[in-house]
């Protein structure tokens, strides 16, 4: 009898079919959401969706159609966004520089088949995107795109890893509005000064230095006039935090069930390993980075 039971157990499928695992990463500007989310997705073999890039595509559409940031002019934008074909793909990025180093893949964004990865980070888009992202109907249209892109990315990932596939999405309202039932919600935070220093470094590494850089990551806080100091950038980031927290539609909030990670004094590697291991723990698979207990 025992032998029979054992044989039946051996024949039983190992993994019970389950919904794919969703990791939602939210937080203020320059807290490290997108770089962390991409690295975590790579480490777990998950899909990745940069939700900010969808708002940026909506903004590019507005600019190309000559739609200004006046609310009445934006009335038709939500319909345009709903009809657009927007795709966000993860690209195998630079190889790690040494053994054990973290891979942060690049992201490619397609708007109606055109590669707009650079165009959506132009100074014009940076200037308009916050206004576009505060529009209720545009947010509803983007929400539908976010969910359908995530479903596609999840099914690709689960086709490769049937027992533990999933998707990582980063933004401002992923754990609160887009995926309120996400299996793991992270709220990534850091002091305004730490974020300003990172932004400064980002701008410097992109060529012209903070004073003249046109495209510094996603830096919307960069005014047309050049920044003279890290303190200026910190003040701009605080202004943006205020706008994000106080806007009417989907304001930036910490979901009650989110794990808050303040990475002010944390290395990039540690936060990536910690989040990946939290996901593994919740999926019931062994942790890989035992030193990274949070
Ligand atoms: N723990 C960390 N220590 C130092 N630098 C970090 C850390 N985490 C992320 N960074 C760096 O901070 C910079 C900003 O990160 P990232 O672009 O991922 O932020 P973000 O939150 O997605 O920004 P935004 O909201 O504007 O899109 C990047 O250069 C990233 O490599
Ligand atoms: N889930 C999201 C993602 C982004 N936004 C807003 C915030 C920014 O104004 C804009 C672009 O985001 P970024 O690429 O800089 O991360 O979109 C949002 O409201 N909700």
TrEMBL record:
Identify the domain of life: Eukaryota
Q: Which GO terms describe its cellular component?
A: cytosol
Q: What class of enzyme is it?
A: transferase
Under Enzyme Commission nomenclature, its number is 2.7.4.25
Instruction: Give me any GO biological process, just one.
Output: nucleobase-containing small molecule interconversion
The name under which this protein is listed is (d)CMP kinase
The text of the family note is: Belongs to the cytidylate kinase family. Type 1 subfamily.
**Pfam families, A to Z:** Cytidylate_kin
Q: Enumerate the catalysed reactions.
A: dCMP + ATP = dCDP + ADP; CMP + ATP = CDP + ADP
